[in-house]
Specification:
The protein is mainly beta and 437 residues long. 7% of the residues lie in helices and 28% in strands. A hairpin with a 4-residue loop joins strand 9 (108-115) and strand 10.
Length: 437
């Protein structure tokens, strides 16, 4: 992966797993019960203060009978799928998710760890195969199809039965487990790449991401569609019953491990990248601020804000209109996809590299403030794309094959929705959420 365009500047990211005082002594555990949308903030509103939010969302998460549903609909706010990303970061630890995948060709559910330089550790669930979970990993978004291994799931399918999927990420080893049974082990020593003279091993602070997205969208490339089993069927029983596909999540448990030996520690509030290498050695723990002034701000310009409205006058109206239009243009990004910049593989906006889709928007890692594995999604600037906890519980949701309900439970369709450029909860060269779990 090319790094020539990366500027040699400090990137600040949120620290997740650090005790605020005894960061070298204690491990920190957090159990996130996913039975409400309290603590979930739309990505059009989140500015980096993790003390106020546990998760950042795009698309349409819902609540039904003490479970969080991630939804995927043909139209509306979840037409690109739904994503939840933790506002805190993990730099090595044990993370598990209790979940049921979605089902159907072209529909993919995911539970992953993703860093801002595209280090990634995955559980992915292709809706056309309900007997296996796919395990995968990437180093800085570098594609290697030998990294993917199917893990058989017993005692009920991935859709019908709640299973616990666990990633145990250590500096020297990663294990993937299903229902407490270790199914795969990866040793760092086996990942050395003689061409780059580096270990192609995930090693930088990562967010927890939960997502449901349409890999089988006709907008995606051939390779992506084939991998997902085919084009999404918008007339499936689940869509007919509810108005959307869905994946269910009950619980996410995080246990953070001690800071790696030899780490550069000067504080306990934020992780920063001290060089463009994007490796374990380039991470430091600091007390840097992580809160942005506005959605236009970045790590190099934290206080950037929207222009003040021009004064109403005959002489200024024309120039004011031009400035306003320019600001509006600068504040919008391309139509979002889920999972933003990854979850389908190496940071490619849902595109497999051989799929024929470009999938490169915002992914160059050049420090533009719109890349690095952030979870973009749909929704207006007001964050209308996320339903409230109260409103989402009474949606007429039907689980399984019961398709007798005529209630769709969808949010009002809003095609062509766009998100603000700075709205991603993880922006390369941008400050991310505070790290207090």
């Amino acid at each position: 992966m090319e790094h020539a365009e990366w500027e040699p500047i400090v990137w600040v990211v949120a620290i997740p797993c650090i005790h605020t005082r005894w960061i070298h002594v204690y491990r920190l555990r957090q159990d996130y019960k996913l039975n409400t949308l309290d603590g979930v903030t739309p990505n059009t509103e989140y500015l980096g203060d993790a003390s106020k939010s546990k998760w950042v969302s795009s698309g349409t998460p819902k609540v039904f009978q003490d479970q969080v549903l991630l939804t995927l609909s043909e139209d509306g706010a979840s037409s690109s799928g739904t994503l939840l990303a933790s506002t805190s970061y993990v730099w090595y630890g044990k993370v598990s998710a209790q979940m049921k995948s979605s089902r159907g060709v072209g529909v993919v559910s995911a539970f992953i760890l993703l860093s801002d330089v595209k280090d990634e550790i995955d559980f992915e669930f292709v809706g056309a195969d309900l007997q296996n979970a796919q395990s995968n990993f990437y180093y800085q978004g570098v594609t290697d199809y030998n990294n993917e291994v199917n893990l058989p799931v017993s005692k009920g399918s991935t859709f019908d039965t709640y299973h616990t999927y666990e990633i145990d990420w250590k500096p020297d080893q990663i294990t993937w487990s299903v229902d407490g049974k270790v199914m795969r082990t990866l040793e760092k020593s086996k990942t050395f790449n003689t061409t780059t003279n580096t270990y192609h091993y995930p090693q930088t602070p990562a967010r927890v991401q939960l997502s449901l997205w349409p890999a089988g969208s006709s907008k995606n490339g051939k390779g992506t569609i084939e991998w997902s089993g085919g084009l999404v069927n918008w007339n499936s029983p689940d869509v007919q019953a509810n108005g959307y596909y869905y994946a269910l999540f009950k619980d996410v448990n995080v246990e953070c491990y001690d800071t790696p030996p030899g780490a550069n520690v000067t504080g306990s509030k934020a992780y920063i990248y001290t060089s463009s290498a994007g490796t374990n050695a380039s991470i430091a723990e600091t007390n840097d601020n992580t809160v942005l002034k506005s959605l236009l701000a970045t790590g190099t310009d934290m206080n950037k804000d929207y222009s003040k409205p021009a004064k109403v006058s005959d002489t200024s109206s024309a120039s004011g209109s031009t400035a306003s239009s320019s600001a509006a243009a600068a504040a919008t990004s391309e139509v979002a996809t889920v999972p933003g910049l990854t979850g389908a593989g190496p940071g490619t906006n849902g595109q497999r590299p051989d799929s024929g889709g470009s999938g490169t928007s915002g992914n160059s890692g050049s420090g533009s403030g719109s890349g690095s594995g952030s979870g973009s999604g749909s929704g207006s600037g007001s964050g209308a794309g996320t339903s409230s906890a109260a409103g989402s519980a009474a949606t007429g949701f039907v689980q399984g094959d019961n398709s007798n309900s005529n209630s769709k439970g969808n949010s009002a369709p809003q095609k062509g929705e766009r998100v603000l450029q700075g709205s991603m909860f993880a922006i390369l060269v941008a400050l991310l959420g505070m790290l207090v779990l």
